[in-house]
Amino acid sequence: MPRSLLSAPKSSILAPRIGTIETSMMRRVYLDNNATTPVLPEVLEAMRPYFGEHFGNASSIHHHGQETRAAVERARESVAALLGCRASEVVFTSGGTEADNLAIFGLTRSGDHVITSTIEHHAVLNACKHLAAKGCEVTYIPVDGRGLVDPADVKHAVRPNTKLITIMFANNETGVVQPVAEIGEIAAEADIYFHTDAVQAAGKIAIDVNKIGCDLLTISSHKFHGPQGVGALYVRKGTQLEPMLYGGSHERSRRAGTENVPGIVGLGKAAELAVAGFERGDDLKMAVARDHLERELLSIEATGLNGEGAPRVPNTTNIYFDSIAGEALVIALDLKGLAVSTGAACSSGAIEPSHVLLAMGLGPDRAKASIRFSLGKQNMAEDVDFALALIPETVSRLRDLSPVYRSVFSK
Amino acid sequence: MFDSPAIAVAMSGGVDSSAVAAMLRAEGRNVIGLTMQLWNQRRLAGHEGMPETVQGRCCSIDDVYDARRVADTLGIPYYVVNHEERFERDVVRPFVEEYLAGRTPIPCSLCNNHLKFDQLLIVARQVGADRIATGHYAQVVFDEPLNRWLLKRPADKSKDQTYFLFGLTQEQLSRTLFPLGGMTKPEVRELARKHNLVIAEKPDSQEICFVPGGDYKRFLEAYLAEQGDERAETEIAGEMVTTDGKVIGEHAGVHNFTVGQRKGLGVATGSPLYVIQIKNDTRQVVVGKDEELYSRTLRARRVNLISTAELREPMRVAVKIRHKHQPAPAIIQSAGPDEVIVTFDEPQRAITPGQAAVFYDGDIVVGGGWIENSTQ
Known about the structure:
The complex is a heterodimer.
Chain A: H1 9-18, E1 21-22, E2 27-30, H2 41-47, H3 63-83, E3 90-93, H4 96-107, E4 113-117, H5 122-131, E5 137-141, H6 151-157, E6 162-166, H7 180-190, E7 193-197, H8 209-212, E8 216-220, E9 231-235, H9 250-253, H10 261-280, H11 282-298, E10 303-305, E11 316-321, H12 326-335, E12 338-339, H13 355-359, H14 364-368, E13 370-374, H15 381-400, H16 403-409
Parallel strand pairs in A: 2-12, 4-5, 4-6, 6-7, 7-8
Antiparallel strand pairs in A: 1-2, 3-9, 8-9, 10-11, 11-13
Helix pairs in contact in A: 2-10, 3-10, 4-5, 11-15, 12-15
Chain B: E1 6-10, H1 15-26, E2 31-37, H2 61-74, E3 78-82, H3 84-100, H4 107-126, E4 129-133, E5 139-143, E6 148-152, H5 170-174, E7 176-177, H6 185-194, H7 216-226, E8 238-242, E9 247-251, E10 274-278, E11 285-288, E12 294-305, E13 315-320, E14 328-334, E15 340-349, E16 356-361, E17 364-375
Parallel strand pairs in B: 1-2, 1-4, 2-3, 4-7, 8-11
Antiparallel strand pairs in B: 5-6, 8-9, 10-11, 12-15, 12-17, 13-14, 13-16, 14-15, 16-17
Helix pairs in contact in B: 1-2, 1-6, 3-4
């Protein structure tokens, strides 16, 4: 009987079929859950009727439309329960990137000033870069060696024309949780909109938009066991948001386009499961498993933790293995059945040193020697054991074949 | 079944390397596909004189997609590894510096020596492969009596790529497979078709992979501009002189010339003129008559020997001084560490510093080096 990381009885029975793909050839273990997560069986079951049986357009007057409209609104309530907001404040989008873009472009006009950080996801960073073309100025707040933004820096960056502060909740590469509540206070005092990209926080740690004091907050379904291609933006009541897409009056005219009903239903179910998970203390169990993995990996020589000393989400650990190419380690481990990542996934497969780790003061070599391990609810305790059985010998082989390591570490 | 050591195939997305992957897979070998990302084709796009959009033959996103689709068709694991930094340091910068020094470089050989059979081989071994296979037309065999790995010309002499591989060490050769060495190009295409590879009809690449459109002068200028290096405009202009020392004009930079060049000299005289020599120290481009292009000896530096550990005494070989050159009979003799003097039976036309001199004994590559200079 596999030992589950979590107590969720359903997941522990069903999860091995989705997360741990057993083939006659090779066992595969997936520890890259910050990239994406498998859809939980309950989520898939919730979505299934909306592909065929309940196919209506949620805007239609008739029975079919009413059925799907009700499903969309139930999902909206589930998401609102996850975020501690009202259902009417939830706007469904195609995912995290669209929600981030909607928040940033929907609020800013030419002449506005925006404050962000150097460690944002590209969905925010590149949107902010594009703001320059719109006639906006952007201040990029640096982070310290732990990967933390100092709220005092945010306060000092505020100008009379500052319209928006957009600083992430949890970092995708290190899992470091930013002092969003302090930043929220600063924003409220200065009467500035505050948006936070909570894509990597949702489902991992409790979120309450009122405690954070944010006006906008982004989540993405597939980062917490919902389907890909759907996300949501929390928009505080009364926030004047210019839409990016023009069309029908869907989503209270904030996001035109026929609703992705199966996706939205899946997101709603994933949000429900996340809330139930917090009630069971899944996050604490996740942290125990992560800490075990982390401790064992750090016992390998010439390694270190990125984000040490900062609060982190419970599923992520980012570790550097000096004198190896992280890229080669990821490939070597994948060929042995373990999926991990060097940082942000890139569509072309080419790898640049992580802007997050560079911003934390790591040199390019150490940044490229860093690996992200991120757990998901489907992972079993055996998955961590599998990783720990594999990594030390693989790191050792890479180092034996690395000219740099041999010259530095051999006596 | 997959316990045999893996072979990493260096996949470019082209026909040759794809066929290699298909062949090895069909033999039941444990194959891993690797593509090196070496140069960002968009990097200099839009710089003065460079095309706005690029359709590079190597390292373009399209080629990575092609390689990935081939790997998917064959059912082999496939990865892209980034070596842009090393490529710039060991191939692109030397390429630029060589041109600025009045020489005519061969980036493909540098890439083979420093990237493909060095960095990529390291990655291949790190991820669990013990050998690397490429789509080069060449053969590698172990010679028991000599106790050495030999590099030999391929069955299809028209596709011979050994000229670009003279720098391979014994260690590198011992870990290299050239599965196309016994095949002709039409056979390789047929094999790709048989395996339903999407790239079966893809045209061959000819140009330097990081110079889109093949205009190296524009590339050089765009690269120097990007680097904030003003040498292209200031330091490299000079005089054009005849072989008897008469100044007949000026030129805008030695990188615009190569030995043997006739067109684009910017001077008009009665008889056709050719670039005879480019003087690095004075930045003079020396021009003269066709017959003045011929030299009997050359000095090669940074020599790598393959079929023999050392040159104890002069050796009779055939020497190739550029890719499309018919190997010419010559005698090679050692002139110090890593240096060889080549004396041809007959004077050779346009021996060009920066190109390679590769020594052949029949089909066997004895070794080769980089041409430093030539004398009549």
